[in-house]
Design a protein that fits this description.
Elements lengths: L15 H12 L1 H8 L11 E4 L7 E4 L2 E2 L1 H5 L12 E6 L5 E5 H17 L7 E5 L5 H11 L3 E4 L6 H11 L3 E5 L2 E3 L2 E3 L1 H9 L7 E5 L13 E3 H6 L12 E2 L3 E7 L7 E6 L1 H15 L6 E4 L6 H14 L2 E5 L10 H9 L3 E4 L1 H10 L2 H4 L8 E5 L5 H11 L6 E4 L35 E4 L12 E5 L9 E2 L3 H9 L6 E9 L5 E6 L3 E4 L2 E4 H9 L4 E11 L3 E10 L7 H14 L8 E4 L13 H9 L7 H4 L4 H17 L1
Parallel strand pairs: 4-17, 6-7, 6-8, 7-14, 8-11, 11-12, 16-17, 16-18, 18-19, 19-20, 29-30
Antiparallel strand pairs: 1-2, 3-13, 4-5, 9-10, 14-15, 15-23, 21-22, 22-24, 24-25, 26-27, 28-29
Helix pairs in contact: 1-2, 4-5, 6-7, 9-10, 12-14, 18-20
The structure holds adenosine-5'-monophosphate-propyl ester.
The site of adenosine-5'-monophosphate-propyl ester has 22 residues, from helix 10, strand 20, strand 24 and strand 25.
């Protein structure tokens, strides 16, 4: 675990200021956050910074009243930021649209007026199923302006996934588009939305953004085109920002967990915004000369916090991009950085590993010297990828901000913080917890592990950005996150602390996969597979992948009357794409005669994993669990033989 000696020595300190800030936040959390919350405009100041009288249902800035769209837009209108760019958007087809803060404000007000005219009220849910186009953040802001609750579904999810989420939160409005561009081809998003809408009785209105321009079916009385609806409201429409209690919900974002049903993570307005603002400031310290590019789609939490709310609340300029990194060529990103003068790039280890595979020549074709800071998120970054990022993109001059966090945490939790003080970096470590974050590594019994020993990452005290609950399921919230150790937030991640106190994140400790940074529950995939008429049982696990980090591999057994074939495998893959979405596509489907099980009927995953990665079975005593060692060994050999035959 060697330190990188960064050449910008004047910016490398021993960590004194960071330690002081962290200690202040721990010793006097109320005072600390009361001070920080002044960066936000409140209609009414809170009565209490943190109400912890009913753990784990913490209430931050209780009694405070604000509106997040006011903080993102209106408040900049009295400053020189009014005519500065909020967004530079680049479409996959090279089209560029820009929005100043004032222009964005106008557009958001017009859409809010449309929503208001169709009866959207405070607390109503708005489902959003859009590609990465400016109308996506605009929809979020317009919803929040009225006090509505948005629920974004990533545009790569299937009709079934969309319908499930809409039904769970009972959305009243759906905002979608006629289509989306993917690698020069048109994806018919509206068709997918229509398939979902056939099973979503709560949706009363569908607003359709014209992106690709093909004719799509529009249902009389329900569907309206975005541009038609906006053209009908006054150009200077103004909708007063709804005063919101800090603890009222801002959005729901579904994320995968260890059971089949995705969890509706609910974030509130006040704590979430304060946390988003300060984490971005501490982590990247963007200023008004920066062009901030967070490459995440707004369909995920990273896009919510760092493409919408935090950068807009700070008044900085963000770049948003619709396309994929290698279309039309493998230098698309570097070309964008050069053309727009991007100064901060925040992306994923998967993207970095992919560029590394493409080769340095694609990068060296471009002048990317505008970059001043680099970041990464979503999955553990292996030291080789870190070093490559540092050398080839950062030209051995730029710090790498590896940010560990989750949908549930609202914003960064463990990361280097040049906005306070940049500590020496170590390739592959996200370094230290942020102010207010008391992170620890526990063993099975809930005791801190000795330095250098792997365990479960936990957070011991509340922080402003934390989720409020799971949508309409407080019991599941309590059980999932605070059930293992009372009042201790269980992250579901493995970690280890090194002798310098640096945290190294080691991936998920539960049945959740991180495929190209996307969170996918193995149980979700298994349920999708067994819903196919041919499948009797399924067990899904992650297999290491040089680019995507890990990929899902499925072991399945078939029902009587079905036999293995290439067609069947293809059909099962199609079925997964239709039930969850293309991001969940298994790398392989291995059809076996029988799955290894304990006598109590539990699938022996470790055995399957050993077969999959070609590892020796090793110590089977802990695996045994009622099954005989002989049986396990025999099954292992049999599965290996079946796999070799493929
Ligand atoms: O396993 C951790 C991994 O991503 C999980 C959270 O996924 P999601 O809710 O989709 O949010 C992703 C974007 C914040 C975590 O439990 N993870 C995220 N960032 C890192 C990471 N693992 C290692 N290093 C990171 N920087």
């Amino acid at each position: 675990m060697s330190e990188t000696s960064l050449p910008f020595n004047d910016r490398v300190f021993p960590g004194k200021a960071l330690k002081e800030e962290w200690e202040k936040s721990i010793k006097k959390p109320q005072e600390f956050w009361a001070e920080k919350a002044k960066a936000i405009d409140w209609f009414r100041t809170w009565d209490k910074v943190l109400d912890d009288s009913n753990p784990p249902f913490y209430k931050w800035f209780k009694g405070g009243v604000l509106n997040i769209s006011y903080n993102a837009l209106d408040r900049h209108l009295e400053t020189p930021r009014k005519n500065a760019l909020a967004y530079i958007w680049e479409g996959e087809n090279g089209e560029v649209r820009t929005f100043t803060y004032y222009q964005l404000y106008r557009e958001v007000n017009k859409l809010a007026k449309v929503f208001k005219n169709v009866g959207l009220k405070k607390g109503d849910r708005v489902a959003v199923y859009l590609p990465m186009i400016p109308e996506l953040p605009i929809t979020l802001l317009a919803t929040a302006r009225l006090g509505g609750v948005h629920m974004v579904v990533f545009s790569g999810f299937s009709a079934e996934a969309l319908a499930d989420r809409i039904n769970d939160c009972e959305a009243k409005i759906l905002v979608t588009s006629d289509g989306a561009y993917r690698r020069g081809k048109i994806v018919t998003l509206k068709d997918t939305a229509d398939r979902a809408l056939a099973a979503t009785p709560t949706v009363e209105k569908v607003v359709v953004v014209k992106r690709t321009g093909q004719t799509v079916p529009m249902k009389e009385g329900r569907d309206v085109y975005y541009h038609d609806a906006l053209a009908k409201v006054e150009a200077n429409a103004f909708v007063p920002p709804e005063p919101m209690e800090a603890t009222e919900p801002l959005f729901i974002l579904y994320t995968s967990g260890t059971t089949g049903k995705p969890k509706g993570v609910q974030h509130g307005v006040g704590g979430y915004l304060v946390w988003g603002y300060w984490t971005l400031k501490w982590g990247f310290n963007p200023n008004d000369k920066d062009i901030w590019w967070c490459t995440a789609d707004v369909g995920w939490i990273t896009g919510h916090t760092y493409n919408v709310y935090a950068p807009l609340a700070m008044g900085i300029t963000s770049l948003i991009f619709e396309g994929t990194p290698d279309y039309p060529a493998q230098d698309r990103w570097w070309e964008i950085i050069e053309r727009h003068g991007v100064t901060i790039l925040y992306t994923t280890p998967t993207a970095i590993r992919m560029f590394r595979k493409f080769g340095e020549e694609w990068i060296n074709k471009h002048d990317i010297s505008s970059l001043r800071l680099l970041g990464t998120v979503g999955e553990p970054i292996n030291p080789e990828a870190w070093k490559w990022y540092y050398r080839v993109i950062g030209k051995e001059k730029l710090a790498i901000i590896d940010t560990w966090w989750q949908t549930e945490t609202g914003g960064f939790m463990i990361a280097p913080l040049p906005g306070i003080e940049l500590v020496p970096l170590k390739p592959g470590s996200a370094t230290n917890p942020l102010p207010s974050i008391q992170a620890e590594v526990y063993d099975e019994k809930g005791q801190p592990t000795p330095t250098g020993t792997k365990g479960f990452l936990v957070i011991k005290t509340p922080w402003p950005g934390m989720m409020e609950t799971l949508w309409k399921d407080p019991e599941r919230y309590k059980q999932t996150y605070f059930g293992r150790w009372p009042n201790i937030y269980y992250t579901g991640d493995y970690a280890v602390k090194d002798p310098d106190g640096y945290f190294w994140l080691l991936g998920r400790a539960d049945e959740v996969l991180k495929v190209a940074g996307h969170r996918i529950g193995t149980v979700e995939l298994e349920s999708a597979l067994v819903s196919h008429p041919s499948v009797s049982e399924a067990a899904v696990m992650g297999k290491e992948d040089p680019v995507k980090g890990e990929v899902p591999v499925a072991f399945v057994t078939l029902r009587n009357g079905f036999s293995p074939s290439e067609e069947l495998r293809a059909d099962l893959i199609k079925h997964i794409r239709n039930t969850i979405g293309p991001i969940a596509t298994p790398d392989a489907i291995i059809i076996v005669n029988k799955l290894p099980k304990t006598r109590s009927g539990k699938i022996m995953r470790r055995l399957l994993k050993a077969v999959l990665v070609g590892a020796a079975l090793g110590d089977v005593s802990t695996l045994e669990d009622e099954a005989s060692v002989e049986d396990i060994k025999a099954t292992y050999e049999e599965l290996k033989r079946q796999l070799e035959k493929k």
